[in-house]
Request: fold
Amino acid sequence: GRLIAFRLDVTALKDSEARLVQHSQEISLYRALLDELPVASFMRDENQRMLFANRAYVELTGRQPEDLLGLTTLDMYPEQGDEFHAQNQQVLDTGELLETEIDYIKADGFVLPTITRLYRVTTLDEKSYLIGSITDTTVLKRREEQLIAAQREAESARADLASVVESLLPSRES
Reply:
């Protein structure tokens, strides 16, 4: 009988396996981080199909994540889809950051003032993705309106005070 023995060094394989586990854990952490952000965030592919939406985006749209995946802006937004599609395409084409104020119309018809930020990410294999965020500015708009109202009241009070002071001054006609 013959005995044939193989000696195989699996160190490289074990190292590769450990790196794969580490990358997998990192991806899981990044996904959890994105999901917990209070700002609605999403990612679309070159054809503007939804690939990822975090929890805040799901809450904003009122749709379940599985219902969002694969949809384009034209599919998702009957009233604003054309506008959103054009903006997305501009960013995908040029790679330039786009930040705009948009009155976002929710599924229930409620209009929400927002700031939308879009930018393109290109991977090493030359694939482009649209990354976006939608920030609800309702509180900021309300404070802005309160500040404007307070400025008007202050201006009115200043004008009234000027009139009172003027009426107390001796007349120059004498």
The longest helix spans residues 138-168. The radius of gyration is 29 Å. DSSP finds six helices and five strands in the chain. The helical segments are 11-36, 55-61, 65-68, 73-76, 81-94, 138-168.
